[in-house]
Design goal:
218 residues; mainly alpha
């Protein structure tokens, strides 16, 4: 059991690290930000706080909302909120990808970043230790807006944070369109190549994980 959870935790951490790298690539592409990145970058422009700290605080606030809405919170949910933003800060500090000033190069970096995010999603979702706080919020809203298709719920949520980010000065452009509408297609083909069916994953919350570990130790 310990070996199983060690392997799952490694997959989770590796996936979240990759996700942070992919997000950093999307920012450095400089052709328009994805909704949540735009929201965090907008707050960064207004406050000057580290981008990663903004992502962490936002994620933890959303986790509290998820909990109040009775969604599952797992170890992966917490790590998701903490790791991704700080990995972006680490990448920014290392500066291994310069900001793009050529449109074609920017689109290429953005698309590469989207592929990295999709591969990252394969690893961290496959771990089954809890979905991301923003995904949980989307599910919670979907349960309460039963007449709205989940796609519309996601659109309302991401459209709202994108608008707020844009108002605060975040860059919106062709990259935003690619991030919103292209990620689904890229993810579908990535998962198909990796032979991964996300519908077969059953996420554990804290209680599930602790219960399994206790049962095994007894």
């Amino acid at each position: 059991m310990i070996k199983e959870y060690s392997a799952r935790t490694i997959r989770l951490v590796f996936g979240l690290f990759l996700y942070g790298v992919g997000s950093y690539m999307g920012i450095q592409a400089n052709v328009g930000l994805a909704p949540w990145e735009a929201f965090s970058m907008g707050i960064f422009y207004k406050t000057g706080f580290l981008y990663g700290d903004i992502v962490v605080v936002t994620g933890l606030v959303i986790i509290v909302i998820d909990f109040l809405l009775k969604e599952k919170i797992g170890f992966g949910t917490i790590l998701n909120a903490i790791m991704i933003g700080k990995v972006v800060d680490l990448c920014n500090w290392l500066g291994f990808i310069p900001q793009m000033h050529n449109f074609a190069a920017g689109v290429a970096v953005l698309l590469a970043g989207q592929v990295v995010i999709c591969i990252a999603s394969y690893f961290y979702i496959r771990a089954g230790l809890g979905c991301g706080p923003r995904d949980a919020l989307m599910v919670a809203m979907g349960k309460r807006l039963k007449r709205c298709p989940i796609g519309l719920v996601r659109g309302i949520l991401e459209g709202s944070v994108l608008l707020l980010g844009w108002i605060m000065g975040a860059k919106v452009g062709i990259g935003t369109v690619i991030a919103v509408f292209g990620i689904g297609t890229i993810m579908e083909y990535t998962f198909r190549i990796l032979r991964f069916d996300v519908r077969n994953v059953r996420h554990e919350n804290f209680a599930d994980t602790i219960k399994r570990l206790r049962e095994r130790s007894n």
